[in-house]
Design goal:
Blueprint (H helix, E strand, L loop, with lengths): L6 H12 L16 E7 L5 H14 L3 E7 L2 H13 L6 E4 L4 H6 L7 H7 L27 E2 L2 E6 H6 L4 H5 L9 H10 L1 E2 L15 E3 L18 H5 L20 H16 L13 H6 L5 E5 L3 H5 L6 E4 L11 E3 L3 E4 L6 H11 L2 H10 L3 E2 L5 H9 L6 H9 L2 E3 L6 H16 L8 H10 L5
Parallel strand pairs: 1-2, 1-3, 10-13
Antiparallel strand pairs: 3-11, 4-12, 5-8, 5-9, 6-7
Pfam family, one: SBP_bac_1
Subcellular location: Cell envelope
Protein name: ABC transporter substrate-binding protein
Length: about 450
């Protein structure tokens, strides 16, 4: 088993615990209302929209200058950890629900409760559930939602038409872990071998597939499975943990979860989804564009990426209706955190408040990259994408229908993901049976009971 925490990262974690990082914390001053603040983010696609927000903000706050630094996801968190250790963290940074619990436990980010109350911010303006995601394990608020996401299907319309699959069918797919329902029927129909035989026709060769009905990424989703398997498992009534947020008992030993993973892996055995070893080095969008996949499950944050693919006609559809009688999609929201070591926390708060306001979120919505968290701004974002011929109601309808489940925010998230990443890779590569996840679940739950 690979180390859960790389050696360098482990040393930095020890340093974070040992050093007086955040010495200028909540009671340590640093509430200047003017000056220059640094803002870190990882998504290059969102950079233009947020730079516009910064320009607009500076126009109304002439005594505050915002410097944005963008780096890729793979480098972002390591650099942030190093910056905390060296007391050089940005004043404000884009935070993720899977990360901020660790920052809370180490006192590295500011609670915002008092500031939110003093500013009279209406938490009810945000898409349902997104504001709750940013209440930490201590019951205090550490962020205001800036966007929200959901998971849906992206499919090749020409391939669907050739297979006789209609848009109406795609909107009302059903699924169950026993036979896959009409969802698996469509996946099989969209799968074509190198002789032109479809997956639901006699003579189909599962060992010589030209186009897989559904794609697979080498990222299996670790403990959350947000875009990979969460929408199936949740549609059985299963949940990741014993509580909606900050649970301490995971449910990977639940038969509903293991049956879901067995069905999912079974798509590989049937030849409808590629083996894990064939997915290395190719993104879902690239494989979809190349005609290797007819359909993929992906997050709404990649809408713009798929919309810009050349030489292919795509449409979206919601996740299938499961045994619970409803469809399901995992919803998450990013927020911006203020470092406790910031010397300009007052100015940093003004920026954070603006990022979560209708003024900035309308700009973000018009950018057509992510969906704004303020509910009143969502229709404008839908209209903006519709101008480019892209229907995103497959994502937004789940919010309106109340079929979203929240991202499984928990402490020890990095360790949970490390355990589950290795376990899921073993299962999906057929080195272990889905029943092995019962023992894995015990290992995960031990993280919450040891010392």
């Amino acid at each position: 088993m690979r180390n859960r925490v790389p050696a360098v990262a482990a040393a930095l974690v020890v340093a974070l615990v040992a050093c007086a990082c955040g010495a200028r914390g909540p009671s340590g001053g640093g509430y200047g209302d003017t000056g220059e603040i640094t803002y870190w983010m990882w998504d290059s696609g969102q950079l233009p929209a947020y730079q516009q927000c910064a320009n607009d903000f500076e126009a109304t706050h002439p005594d505050i200058d915002v410097t944005i630094e963008q780096m890729g996801w793979d480098n972002y968190w390591g650099r942030l950890l190093t910056a905390f250790v060296s007391d050089a963290a940005p004043d404000v940074f884009v935070d993720h629900t899977s990360k901020y619990g660790d920052y809370v436990s180490r006192g590295l980010i500011e609670p915002l409760d008092g500031l939110v109350e003093e500013s009279g911010i209406d938490l009810g303006q945000y898409v349902d559930g997104t504001a709750r995601l940013w209440v930490g394990p201590d019951g205090r608020r550490y962020g205001l939602p800036k966007d929200f996401d959901a998971v849906g299907l992206f499919y090749n319309t020409e391939m669907a038409a050739a297979a006789g699959v209609t848009p109406a069918q795609m909107q009302e797919l059903t699924w169950n872990p026993a036979d896959g329902g009409t969802y698996e029927d469509v996946i099989a129909r969209l799968t074509v071998d190198r002789n032109g035989v479809r997956g639901d026709e006699p003579g189909f060769d599962r060992n010589a597939v030209a186009t897989y009905g559904i794609g697979l990424s080498d990222d299996l989703g670790a403990g959350a499975g947000q875009t990979q398997w969460s929408m199936y498992a949740a549609a059985t009534g299963w949940s990741h943990t014993d509580r909606e947020l900050w649970g301490t008992r995971f449910n990977y030993d639940d038969p509903r979860f293991q049956d879901t993973i067995s069905w999912w892996r079974g798509l590989i055995e049937k030849g409808f989804m590629p083996p894990l070893e064939q997915t290395i080095g190719g993104s879902l969008s690239q494989q979809l564009q190349a005609g290797r996949y007819a359909m993929v499950t992906e997050g709404s944050w990649n809408i713009n990426t798929f919309a810009q693919l050349g030489g292919i006609s795509l449409a979206t559809a919601p996740t299938p209706i499961g045994p619970s009688g409803e469809r399901a999609t995992m919803s998450n929201s990013l927020a911006d955190s203020i470092s406790t070591g910031s010397p300009n926390k007052g100015a940093a708060w003004e920026w954070v408040r603006y990022l979560a306001s209708p003024e900035c979120q309308s700009v973000v919505g018009q950018g057509g990259v992510v969906l704004p968290a303020i509910a009143s701004e969502v229709p404008a974002a839908e209209a903006r994408l519709a101008e480019h011929g892209y229907d995103i109601t497959a994502f937004t309808r789940q919010v309106r229908d109340g079929t979203t489940v929240l991202y499984p925010v928990a402490e020890n998230a990095a360790d949970v993901d490390s355990v589950m990443k290795n376990a899921m890779e073993r299962v999906m590569s057929f080195a272990a049976d889905p029943s092995s996840l019962t023992e894995v679940n015990a290992e995960v739950n031990a993280l919450f009971t040891s010392g």
